[in-house]
Amino acid sequence: MDTVTVDKITNVPTVPIFGVPVSRLNMKDTLNVLVQAVESRQPHQVITANPIMVMAALEDPVYMNVMKQAELIVPDGTGVVWAANYVGHPVPERVAGFDLLHELLAAGENYHWKVYLLGSTSEVIQATAKRVHELYPAITVCGKRDGFFGPKEDEAVIAAIREANPDLLFVARGADTQEPWIGKYKEQLGVPVMMGVGGSFDVISGRTKRAPKLFQKLRAEWLYRLLKEPSRYKRMLALPKFAAKVMREKENVTKV
């Protein structure tokens, strides 16, 4: 795929996967677009989509609306990349959320960006902040708090984030919570780039390990996670269901 130059994030080329508009940018161009987003100072929600999230959106209109209202949806899951290729609208590569997080922090060192970390446990968030400082010393962790808060505390959490005025907001609260939360409050939060990062803080902090390179190369990180956490099997059932649906409804996959 040729390099794509985009003036506004809304001009990103996409392919709809069962109604979810997935970006067709590679990692490099995705990063360039998000640097522009930070410079714009306008709020942008980034969603790292996988088949489980697409299937959840098909079952829940509210969740689907959150996906459609996001400013950028990147093909995080291998299954999403496969589906786009299968229906003849290929994306150039997988844009893994964990890698995008690190790419943003690395790029942000050139601009002395500030990042706010929200989610996981107090222990993990403290260790994550320490590790981010070690890896990216020119990045300022301008705020952090764990993810254990309910709707009654949302207002205080939003106020704290607004006061910190970060360039990046990473939220680790689980896909069923973090995406709707960001979507609901993104205008109030006003952060240029907001992204749900799932279990990334656990990996950055050292609490868990990312899948070995072999699993990454084979596009089987999902299998590694399943082997490490067998309790995830019910959630993983969405993967074969997604693949079967794509093959069964090939002609309808990209219909909006």
UniProtKB/TrEMBL annotation:
CDD domains: Glyco_transf_WecG_TagA
Homology family: Belongs to the glycosyltransferase 26 family. TagA/TarA subfamily.
NCBIfam families: wecG_tagA_cpsF
Catalyzed reactions per annotation: UDP-N-acetyl-alpha-D-mannosamine + N-acetyl-alpha-D-glucosaminyl-di-trans,octa-cis-undecaprenyl diphosphate = N-acetyl-beta-D-mannosaminyl-(1->4)-N-acetyl-alpha-D-glucosaminyl di-trans,octa-cis-undecaprenyl diphosphate + UDP + H(+)
Keywords: Cell wall biogenesis/degradation, Glycosyltransferase, Teichoic acid biosynthesis, Transferase
Domain of life: Bacteria
Species name: Paenibacillus polymyxa (Bacillus polymyxa)
Assigned EC number: 2.4.1.187
InterPro entries given in the database record: TagA_TarA (IPR034714), WecG_TagA_CpsF (IPR004629)
This protein's name: N-acetylglucosaminyldiphosphoundecaprenol N-acetyl-beta-D-mannosaminyltransferase
Pathway the protein contributes to: Cell wall biogenesis; teichoic acid biosynthesis
Enzyme category, top tier: transferase
One Pfam family hit: Glyco_tran_WecG
Protein task: Catalyzes the conversion of GlcNAc-PP-undecaprenol into ManNAc-GlcNAc-PP-undecaprenol, the first committed lipid intermediate in the de novo synthesis of teichoic acid.
